[in-house]
Amino acid sequence: MWQSFVNWFKNLFGIKPQIHHEENGLWWQKDHDTVKIGLDSKIIDELGDITFLDTPQVDDQVQKDDQIIDIEGGKAVATFNSPFAGKIINVRSEFQDDPSLLSGQKDPVLVTVEI
Q1: Cα–Cα–Cα angle for 84, 88, 92, nearest 5°?
Q2: By CB neighbour count within 10 A (0-12 exposed, 13-18 middle, 19+ buried), where does 81 fall?
Q3: Contact 101/95 with Cβ under 8 angstroms?
Q4: Which of 31, 36, 44, 52 is buried most, with the most CB atoms less than 10 Å from its CB?
Q5: Secondary structure class of 33 (helix, strand, coil)
Q6: Strand, helix or coil at 96?
Q7: Confidence of residue 9 (pLDDT cuts 50, 70, 90)
Q8: pTM for the whole thing?
Q9: C-alpha closest to that of 51 among 94, 98, 107, 93
Q10: Rounded CA gap, 51 and 8, in Å?
């Protein structure tokens, strides 16, 4: 009951969940029982022209610290680990189909995890 009131109050005043930025360029935003996970646009720029992206698929289970994002650019290759355990409920498949679309994106969400 109390949590419902808090959520209603946050929605009423437009209070959004805090975005957490990790040193490696990964960011995440927890909202109730879901976590959006993405990459900071700065790390995307540092990787150069993005040529490859791999993430888990919808309904895959991930554990905390499992590899969740593998990305390859013209300048570097990077792997990012999951900050949470849970089930993948959304994947931005357009980025997997054409990783070059990531270039120029502002802090894109790549996967959503239900925790």
Answers
A1: 115
A2: middle
A3: yes
A4: 44
A5: coil
A6: helix
A7: low
A8: 0.86
A9: 98
A10: 42
Vertex 18: Cα angle to 100 and 68 (nearest 5): 40
Report the C-alpha gap between 53 and 32 in whole angstroms. 27
d(CA 89, CA 108): 16
> In terms of Cα–Cα distance, which of 60, 78, 73 is closest to 23?
78
Q: Are 48 and 74 in contact (CB under 8 A)?
A: yes
Taking the C-alpha atoms of residue 26 and residue 41, their distance in angstroms, rounded to an integer, is: 10
pLDDT in tens, 41-98: 999 999 999 999 999 999 999 999 999 999 999 999 999 999 999 999 999 999 999 9
- What is the DSSP track for 35-94? EEEEE-HHHHHHH-SEEEEE-PPTT-EE-TTSEEEEEEESS-EEEEE-SS-EEEEEE-HH
